[in-house]
Amino acid sequence: xxxxxxFLRFRVSGDSIRFAExxxxxxxxxxxxxxxxxxxxxxxxxxxxxxxxxKYVSHEIRGxxxxxxxxxxxxxARTHFFTYRQSGVVRIYTEVENISxxxxxxxxxxxxxxxxxxxxxxxxxxxxxxxxxxSHHAECQPRRASLAELGVTDAFAVGQNRIGCSNIGSWSTKxxxxxxxxxxxGKFTMFQIESNASWYYEIGDRKTGETKSLYLYLGGxxxxxxxxxxxxxxRGSYRSVAVALCVSDSLNGVIGEMSEYRRLIAxxxxxxxxxxxxxxxxxxxxxxxxxxxxTKKYIPAVAKTGADxxxxxxxxxxxxxxxxxxxxxxxxKESKARFPHGVRAVTDAIRAHGMKAGLWIEPEIVGxxxxxxxxxxxxxxxxHRHGRKICVMGRYFLDFNHPKVRxxxxxxxxRMTEDYxxxxxxxxxxxxIGVGADVADGSFGEGLENDRRAYLEWIDxxxxxxxxxxxxxxxxxxxxxxxxxxxxxxxxxTSDQIDYRKYPYIAGNIxxxxxxxxxxxxxxxxxxxxxxGDPFDPDRAWVEEHIDRExxxxxxxxxxxxxxxxxxxxxxxxxxxxxxxxEGIAYFRKLTPVKKVALPYFPLGFTRFGRKYAASGLxxxxxxxxxxxxxxxxxxxxxxxxxxxxxxxxxxPKTLPTEFSVAERSFTVRFTSExxxxxxxxxxSD
Length: 686
Known about the structure:
Blueprint: E1 2-5, E2 8-13, E3 16-19, E4 30-32, E5 55-62, E6 65-71, E7 75-84, E8 87-98, E9 104-115, E10 127-133, E11 141-146, E12 163-167, E13 176-184, E14 187-194, E15 199-208, E16 211-220, E17 230-232, E18 237-239, E19 242-248, H1 251-265, E20 278-280, H2 282-286, H3 292-305, E21 309-312, H4 343-352, E22 356-361, E23 365-367, H5 371-377, E24 384-385, E25 388-389, E26 391-392, E27 395-397, H6 403-419, E28 424-427, H7 444-465, E29 470-473, E30 491-493, H8 504-507, E31 519-523, H9 540-546, H10 549-560, E32 563-566, H11 575-595, E33 599-601, E34 613-620, E35 623-631, E36 636-640, E37 645-652, E38 659-662, E39 666-670, E40 675-684
Parallel strand pairs: 20-21, 20-32, 21-22, 22-28, 28-29, 29-30, 30-31, 31-32
Antiparallel strand pairs: 1-2, 2-3, 4-9, 5-6, 6-7, 7-8, 8-18, 8-19, 9-16, 9-17, 10-11, 10-13, 12-15, 13-14, 14-19, 15-16, 23-27, 24-25, 26-27, 33-34, 34-35, 35-40, 36-39, 37-40, 38-39
Helix pairs in contact: 3-4, 10-11
């Protein structure tokens, strides 16, 4: 018997259930410690102890949900599949229950394994994989390579090697995003793993009986990658992380399907409904050392730009200087040295100028020199490994399963919002704890998983208690840019990149990873080029000489596709450049309704650092809203379209000259400066 659910097709034969593409493999991997992993495949996670022992029990489709039940002698696996009318995505997770009469220990539970969907090893030269590399200041850098280039061959019955990534730790996206795309002869398959901790994917070849195929393995941490085990008492159960998959006949199409799904699960906030513009005085301005006198000086100029929120970042708290403040943080009480009249006096001044006020916090850590809070919490409130508090860069990490931690931070958020007047809270997290933490009778991986779950539960409680407070998530930029996290927040910082000439390489790709209505990008029209935190205090004469109109425009274009985080010495811009900035902010507001429905559009594919040009946009119906960047190139850039062009016009800036021409199915921009950006509106035919 064959049946279909979404784009997945299954075949039931006797006591087995498999994919209908002619593969003999199943789709659930569960390994019981002590069981026989019947393979010699090295680090490959297939061929778990229960995978060949599973017998098909039943399947049931109810509306948009399919549940497939399989059993071995030890466990029952229930794999849940969900479809959505608004998207072609299938969302999947697996629940495992101990059906034996004794405790068992698991060290692997896959979310889903998809086999036989894109050909075999003999075609590895023509099958391509896009992996999305990450780093601080260099987020979302896709790389495309054939499976053959990545090591898959048809040299033997089955290979030892695999293509994979194992994120291990509390920064969920520090090296790679939990997503990928497989391309095979015009068919694109995209996946994402929804985990805010450790996760794992794997692509490899396998052979069962006479069938040899490629497979995609998706899941959370396991014993090999993430030091994860889970002990289940009889009738005890465990649920894997969720994953999502979709298919399309184009790169834009498959990212569009995933984007439609992301809109269904994304964190929503009433305070964020109109996608307000945020000014944050950290970047190229106050860095870690805000001060009452300076902030009050900046407020009037920021208000004139049209910003909605003014956020005071790190340093509004504690008495230590900005360069040394982090080892002392944890009290989250206002600094009398930097704010002698109190933080409330400054947030009131912000509101008096028609904006709302925001404050920064790093709630998950306590500085290792903050004796007051170390004494208050005691050792039991912190995460430990091998019985010792985990310490990274002068920070200890709080355990969100402990009621004392949640109680103090609840008081902290109340103090920040009610006493200090914060309408916006930037939740930052600047270090990674590594493999995990101690947990009673468990593994480091389980300890990490438990704490990350508890943190998001706390976040949800704060969002419920303060529905009118806008809450941003940030982790040294985009180091936690996963859709487990993004289902609990309406906005995320995509990078801490400080060079506006490099940000297009991030902004040009970021909509493949984050919805436009969630992806915050810095706009700092007045910027220096020193190291982060270096003093930058120019005067009007310096700004007039060094900051030209094109720098103001490029910074603004960088942020037009997503959310705008305005920063820097905007008070030093002359009237002409200030008006260019105001024009960009007004245009940003025009795009707000578009961003809530539009899908990402990559006319040239993805960009990467060092390329001379970039183009990225949004598509809504037959309208294309397109950012185009010159990044050191000479001359012009021609952008092809798959439909006839009806019209094209400059969206921003309208007040500067822009050279472009339109052919039937292409669009050419001619640049006059080495670093230059423009934003266009293009209408295509039906």
